[in-house]
Amino acid sequence: MLVKLENPALFSKVIELISELVSEVRLKVNEFGMSIIAMDPANVAMVGCKFPKSAFSQFESGDEILGINLDDLKRILKRCGVKSSLILEKKDNLLNIQIQDRIKRNFSLSLIEIDSEDKEMPSLEFSSRVELNSIDLIASVEDCGVVADACSFIIGDGKFIIEAKGLNSARSEFSGDEAKIEAENCKSRYSLEYLSKFIKGAKLCEKTILNFANDHPLKMDLRTEGMELSFILAPRVETED
Questions:
Q1: Distance from C-alpha of 55 to C-alpha of 57, rounded to nearest angstrom
Q2: Residue 174: its pLDDT value, please?
Q3: Same domain assignment for residues 60 and 145
Q4: Residue 60 pairs with which residues in a beta bridge?
Q5: CATH number, domain at 45?
Q6: Looking at the structure, do residues 98 and 136 belong to the same domain, yes or no?
Q7: Are 211 and 184 in contact (CB under 8 A)?
């Protein structure tokens, strides 16, 4: 296996995002590209990402599954500069990583055994789909984080509302002018600890797609020309005061 990225900044940022949820992953490489699917240790959130073959300037691989410690990989990727290119090559039980800019720098990362089985992103049905500007979603989630540890995604009267209530409250409201809303009335509550990690991914693309339903998992989809990133988050069950 040998793959080359001319601009590894996006790849580096995605690896850093995933490392906030899980410490070890199975990195799959096949004729279609590179992908990761992983679940966090608390079984609350899942992440899936794909880098298509077209994202790479050089791509030579059969079917490979690489066990990777993300903290180790993240530290190496941070050594890439703005104009660096990145080559990943599997040799025996090592991933050789070459960073090319003015000089060539080489790292070797030991591959690890990961006992967990291959995971697939679950096929879920949703009653609501909202597409909005990522910058607006980020601001609304950050607003909620100021006042509470969870927030509600609400569809009502054709509007999408992000709301958090504790001793204090925060609320953002989107009409059809600010977001594309295809939805039935519903409400579901989610952990802001996880959402705050997810929205770091929203900074990578202009639009974010949210799929959810009443007291149902959330699916957040982020896409750029060279990457697809999805998060799934279990709902926070409402408790009586």
A1: 7
A2: 98
A3: no
A4: 2
A5: 3.70.10.10
A6: no
A7: no
DSSP letters spanning the chain: -EEEES-THHHHHHHHHHHTT-SEEEEEEETTEEEEEEE-TTSSEEEEEEEEGGG-SEEE-SSEEEEEEHHHHHHHHTT--TT-EEEEEEETTEEEEEEESSSEEEEEEE-----SPP--------SEEEEEEHHHHHHHHHHHHHH-SEEEEEEETTEEEEEEESSSEEEEEE-TTTEEEEE-SEEEEEEHHHHHHHHHHHTTSSEEEEEE-TT--EEEEEEETTEEEEEEEPPPPP---
Give me the amino acid identity at 210: L
Contacts of 48 (CB under 8 A, 6+ apart): 35, 36, 37, 38, 121, 228, 229, 230
d(CA 96, CA 88): 6
Residues 6+ apart with CB under 8 A from 31: 53, 61, 62, 63
Of 198, 215, 204, give the one whose Cα is nearest residue 17: 198
CA distance 149 to 46: 19
* Paired sense of beta strands 218-224 and 227-233, if any: antiparallel
- What is the domain count for the chain? 2
- Report pLDDT digits (tens) over 21-63: 999 999 999 999 999 999 999 999 999 999 999 999 999 999 9
